[in-house]
Design brief:
Shape: globular
Strand order of the largest sheet: 6-7-5-8-9-4-10
Radius of gyration: 28 Å
Number of helices: 26
Helix content: 40-55%
Bound molecules: adenosine-5'-diphosphate, zinc ion
Strand content: 5-15%
Number of strands: 18
Distance between the termini: 69 Å
Largest sheet: 7 strands, parallel
Length: 673
């Protein structure tokens, strides 16, 4: 229970009686932090009443310590759960979301030295410097330091001179190092990049497995773990391994409104190069004056070199980056890219941790990465300045074989266990499902990370949402397509979760085989209702129902398909269907990476209008599709309206757009016509 008194606007008074007998930490008083903790900080206990503990408001102290105006709502939730409710906390939020503050702020307020475990040694120095700039004494311990420097830092730590110490996980293997940390009696242990603890994560690190044991030795009063990528399965594993069962999971902000996602299924290397080049051109513009940076991810070292050559041929300042290059070379490339001296880096997944460049306009994967987690982390490096940015995922059936080889390849630790191979393979298949999904890409990812609270019901600007928007009804499948979806859902419903995808597809396509007959499917009203389609196509459609959340798979013994609540609502036409049907051909034809230009009678005018749209979008700091869609531009180019009224009749214009952009568009029509 929290009582707020009018006389103490920024004071929070909490009654001990309401929080049972749990131990609480007296919080430190506000005010700038001394460079070196004195060990006799004033306490925020005020003798208002014997039962009351008064702590000044977190926000006030955030302002004075960190110079930040306010917590983001989920940061506040994390800090309050940790400090006020004394719960272990797991924070899952995208890179750049502000996770560090959720342990740095508590560290600045708690008495004693907080330990932060982080695998990103390269970033520790920056973090430490950032804290020191704010007057918060911090240091780090990693094998990159020489022995005497380590000794000095450890001595200062023992004297209580630091509020935070960053520790590389490999130090936890050393018993002396752990004893030293234990002697610090840390009030808080924070585990950054916590997904590294999970076998189900995309970045498993054996050193992380020690953390549970170390926590048991250090016995900190508070534990906080954070990561940018954790599926429900990975979260469960983190919680279990860190013993955070009574804790709170805070999950926020996977929807990135400025990130335009697109995926294309291609076949040949030539198509990949063409799609990559088109995307670079479209998003960076003229190589002589590029609009920002781009990262091209390839799956192998050799391929980074190949694609880098191609990018250089386009005229962009570019370089390859992979773990096989000497450390100095990698450093050089990373720095040059950060400084804007390189426009494009073509890299393996070794590139990325700690890239500090806000104006990355494009992240292209020319080959499929290993998992959705990896993909989302990599694509999340685009558009950190909040301006429009694009993520393009190119994949081909050849990627399946390539990934399988990469997964099975022995690594330094020796052969991989078959369990691990299975895990990685199933994570990769999830990614391929993303690549071929027929529903909103953002929603797909939100659902994958279990972030139901933020499901958008269609983001309105990924390639799928745009394809739906170009249909007759905005953001929904066309009536004919919706009927197909409802028929398929009816088939799933009638099968009552007794069989898998293939059997249902057989039933819908009207295949008269033994299994269908044994189940009595040939007598159902749904038998053969999609008879004009091939079974393979129906299987693809069923997969799309799953990725859209309309159907789900229950894999207790066999993968059985059943309809979800949402699917039932769509089937009954209570909710619109938002799915793009699979292409009729088995192997979808390659499209150019450009948003498909409609067939127009006046392509020159269309191009001129596109230019105008870009200017309008730039001026308003919004993505181009917010101004209007290609289809709308095409219709304007066709109809050549000469006043605002006839412009308003164009599909997708509407009064607001006419008012905001009408004059400028008409001007372009007049001068172009
Ligand atoms: P993450 O660890 O999630 O990748 P960081 O902690 O590095 O992200 O934060 C990214 C940026 O956001 C930093 O520049 C940080 O100063 C800023 N930031 C974090 N929280 C806030 C806030 N509440 N208000 C304003 N800026 C914030
Ligand atoms: Zn979308």
């Amino acid at each position: 229970m929290v009582i707020r008194e009018p006389w103490a606007k920024s004071l929070k008074i909490e009654l001990f009686a309401s929080v049972s007998m749990r131990h609480r930490d007296p919080l430190r008083q506000s005010g700038p932090q001394p460079k070196v903790a004195s060990g006799e900080q004033g306490r925020a206990m005020v003798g208002h009443s014997a039962e009351a503990l008064i702590s000044t408001d977190h926000e006030t102290r955030l302002r004075s310590c960190f110079g930040l105006e306010a917590f983001r709502p989920w940061q506040r939730e994390a800090v309050e759960a940790l400090l006020d409710d004394n719960q272990p906390v797991l924070v899952v939020a995208p890179t750049g979301g502000g996770k560090s503050l959720t342990y740095q702020y508590p560290a600045s307020q708690l008495e004693g030295t907080t330990i932060v475990i982080s695998p990103l040694i390269a970033l520790m120095e920056d973090q430490v410097r950032g804290l020191q700039d704010r007057g918060i004494a911090a240091t780090y311990l990693a094998s990159t330091l020489d022995r005497s420097e380590l000794n000095e830092r450890e001595a200062a730590l023992r004297r209580g001179e630091y509020r935070l110490v960053y520790v590389a996980p490999e130090r936890l293997a050393n018993d002396f190092a752990v004893s030293m940390l234990q002697s610090l009696n840390p009030p808080l242990v924070a585990i950054d990049e916590a997904h590294c603890i999970s076998q189900w994560g995309h970045d498993f690190r054996p050193d992380y497995l020690r953390i549970g044991e170390v926590l048991a030795r250090l016995k900190p009063r508070h534990v906080l773990a954070c990561t940018a990528t954790a599926t429900p399965r990975v979260r469960d594993e983190i919680v279990e391994r860190l013993g955070m069962q009574n804790g709170r999971v805070i999950l926020r902000g996977f929807a990135r409104p400025n990130l335009h996602l697109r995926a294309e299924l291609l076949e040949t290397p030539k198509q990949r190069r063409a799609a990559m080049s088109a995307a670079l051109r479209e998003n960076l513009g003229d190589p002589r004056n590029p609009a920002g940076g781009a990262i091209v991810y390839a799956a192998t070292r050799k391929n980074t070199e190949r694609f880098a050559e191609h990018v250089a041929g386009l005229g962009y300042r570019s370089a390859a980056y992979h773990a096989g290059l000497p450390a100095e070379k990698r450093n050089e490339v990373g720095l040059a890219f950060a400084r804007g001296e390189l426009d494009v880096v073509v890299a393996t997944n070794a590139f990325g941790m700690g890239i500090d460049r806000a104006d990355i306009r494009l992240v292209v994967h020319v080959e499929a990465p290993g998992s959705i987690e990896a993909y989302y982390q990599e694509v999340g490096r685009a558009g950190r300045d909040g301006a429009p940015a694009r993520g393009l995922l190119l994949s081909a059936s050849a990627d399946l074989g390539l990934r399988r080889r990469l997964i099975e390849r022995p690594w330094e630790g020796g052969a991989r266990s078959s369990e691990r191979i299975q895990q990685q393979w199933s994570m990769f298949l999830d990614l391929m499902r993303y690549a071929e999904a027929g529903s909103c890409r953002h929603d797909f990812i939100l659902r994958y990370f279990g972030d139901e609270a933020e499901i958008l019901g269609g983001c309105g600007h990924c390639d799928i949402c745009l394809a739906l928007e170009d249909g007759e009804t905005t953001g929904e499948s066309s009536p004919e397509d919706a009927l197909v979806v409802r028929k398929a859902l009816a088939g799933v419903a009638r099968a009552r979760g007794r069989v898998g995808m293939k059997a249902i597809a057989d039933m819908l396509a009207g295949k008269d085989n033994a299994k269908v007959r044994r189940q009595g499917f040939d007598r159902l009203s749904t038998f053969g209702i999609l008879g004009e389609h091939k079974v393979d196509w129906v299987v693809q459609l069923l997969r799309r129902l799953v990725t859209a959340g309309y159907a789900a798979i229950d894999a207790r013994e066999y993968p059985l398909l059943y309809i979800t609540k949402k699917g039932a609502a769509v089937m009954k036409d209570e909710e619109p269907a938002r799915i793009v049907l699979p292409a009729k051909r088995a192997a979808p034809k390659a499209r150019s990476s450009k948003e498909s230009a409609p067939a127009v009678s006046d392509p020159l005018l269309f191009e001129a209008l596109r230019q105008v749209r870009k200017e309008l979008a730039d001026a308003a700091h919004v993505p181009a599709y917010v101004v209007c869609s290609n289809r709308t531009l095409g219709e304007i180019a066709d109809r050549k309206p000469n006043d605002l009224e006839s412009l308003g009749e164009v599909h997708g214009m509407g009064p607001a757009r006419v008012e905001q952009y009408g004059e400028r568009l008409l001007e372009a029509v007049r001068s172009g016509a």
